[in-house]
Amino acid sequence: MKSIALLSRGSVVSELAPGILLAMVVAAAAGYITDHYGGPLMLLTLLLGMALVSLSDEGARTAPGIKFASKRILRVGVALLGLRISLSDVTDLGLASFVLIVAAIGLSIGTGVILARMTGRDSIFGILAGGAVGICGASAALAISSVLPQGKDRETDTIFTVVSVTLLSTIAMVLYPVIAGKFGLDDRLTGIFLGATIHDVAQVVGAGYLVSDEAGDTATVIKLMRVMMLMPVVLSLAFFMRSRNSAAGQKTPLPIFAFVFAALVLANSFNLVPEDLRLALVEASRWCLIIAIGALGMSTRLESFLKVGPRAATIVIGTTVVLLVFVMAVLKLTPYFIQ
């Protein structure tokens, strides 16, 4: 019996290995290009993956591993994000900043749903787009997508959202510090503004330290606060979808990775993980997400991506603008933040 089990495991590994290795090669190639020539890593990984889309066709030797990487490796990467965050990150910034972040995320998701309905898209896409804009860009899009109903267009919608928020983040990294200066925000408020509005972590860090060290430090912590909200949102969505599907007679598995994320936040908060190990796992999380993006790219045909259309772009851009206006209005009009 033991030998049969070993043979079974070996066959599973041999089935998955080609696709996983291919996704890793795509991620490594994108990383090399980014390191030597610049550019957004997530976007480059997606584009390289999309160039190899035929390798995910049914019957292709690499197809099972690509599917595994786009789902299972993705969840490992999201779970390990918990080691980037500690509870002290939230308490250090105070209640007002926390309330601002929670309100901004709720507004983003609500705006996404409203714009989706106004443009004839389903509410599920509005949740996906609003969550990506409000929380942490590409990572949030991937995590939220994993607990939403998996329709025939879900992967394409996810890729579209990832590309959109990555492009908007890159634009924001250059434009938003200028906007903050025009509205007369000091370095601390500029950091709060950048951390609360730019989608992806890397662009938040880049924009913040472009202004000053204080702005960069504040922006990074605010952004990590948004990242910390990812799991409460994902868990809430998972339980909502589970109860809705149960009423319809369908079963939805609990997102175990979300509980692992929460446990790792607590472990990091109480310094239960050695620093060297923590840093290694944080880097592993980053590469898991990049590998998953490459696999998603290989699962997405360009013609399907283009069919998503301008309505979807309107939802992502409109939600981004609403978030920008809301955060700036709070910083300029709320007594706690007024200089």
Q: Major sheet: size, sense and barrel closure?
A: none
The oligomeric status of these chains comes to: single chain
The count of helical stretches stands at: 16
> What is the alpha-carbon Rg in Å?
20 Å
Order of helices and strands: HHHHHHHHHHHHHHHH
Q: Helix content range of the residues, please?
A: over 70%
Shape: globular
Question: Helices, strands, pairings?
Answer:
Elements: H1 2-37, H2 41-50, H3 63-80, H4 87-91, H5 94-118, H6 123-134, H7 137-145, H8 154-182, H9 187-197, H10 201-211, H11 213-228, H12 230-247, H13 256-269, H14 275-298, H15 302-307, H16 309-333
Task: For this entry, give a set of tags.
globular; single chain; 16 helices; mainly alpha; 339 residues; disordered N terminus
Question: Can you put this structure into words, describing what you see?
Answer:
The chain has one domain. It has 16 helices and no strands. The protein has helices at residues 2-37, 41-50, 63-80, 87-91, 94-118, 123-134, 137-145, 154-182, 187-197, 201-211, 213-228, 230-247, 256-269, 275-298, 302-307, 309-333. α1 packs across α2 (41-50) and α1 crosses α14 (275-298).
Q: Could you give a quick summary of the protein structure above?
A:
This protein has about 350 residues and is an all-alpha fold.
